[in-house]
Description:
37% of the residues lie in helices and 16% in strands. The protein has 10 helices and 8 strands. β1 (5-10), α1 and β2 (38-43) form a beta-alpha-beta unit. The chain is of the alpha/beta class and 250 residues long. The model has no long low-confidence stretch (mean pLDDT 96). α1 (17-28) runs parallel beside α2 and α1 (17-28) crosses α10. The structure holds 2-phosphoglycolic acid. Residues 10, 169, 174-175, 207-210, 228-232 line the site of 2-phosphoglycolic acid.
Amino acid sequence: MNVRRLVVANWKMNKTAAETADYIDAFVVQLPSLPRDVEIVLAPPFTSICRAAAKREGSRVRLGAQTMHWELHGAFTGEISAPMLREFGVSHVILGHSERRAHCNETDRTVNLKVHTALEQSLIPIVAVGETLEQRRAGVTDDHVVAQTRAAFDGVDAGALAGVVIAYEPIWAIGTGENCEPAEANRVMATIRSSLQGLRETPILYGGSMNTGNVASYATQPDINGGLIGGASLDPDGFAQLIRSAASPP
Ligand code: PGA
């Protein structure tokens, strides 16, 4: 199985456009020293996407958005559509992040609508799934992430699933410094992979307190194909170092 590898920086609500420009200037000079076989995606806030697009031009850095609406245009105050993202060369979109599920009414149903729109609009959806601490303690982690995965891709042809990305992010591990043990993350991710036909070659990323110190222990796991990184992606040197460590486990 030859699954492509990806490292995605989820900046969340961090960095102005000016800060984004400084970051990308500092980051692109490090690209020659980064492994070629790892795809690198930066997902800045919407207001920084235009500047990020100009700054990364000509480099192999790809651009992601942190969410989008499922409709292409219309009366949806505050929302952003797929064509608006594509205009700036955005290639990936994170959907169903637990913070958006918790605070912005994102549901399995709207994630599914967005997945269909993303695929129709040639955007690569990065669908986030993951359990709460209560669900983990209750022993329903696998059932929950499998249900989220099946709901997200309901109605999507198995043949299209090699072109999507899934991120397993245990909610209790996000931003807490309490990362999920790599072997346990791998086990859940293998369960996700076997939950639908067509996921054999789909990149599945781990997310949740991944950092330079622990990334290598994830990279060696067979069902982990990269990371969705929040806090540890905010510094360009640290993020570059994390990508190096992801590619060359000790
Ligand atoms: P974290 O966030 O790396 O800061 O834990 C990951 C995420 O929420 O995507």
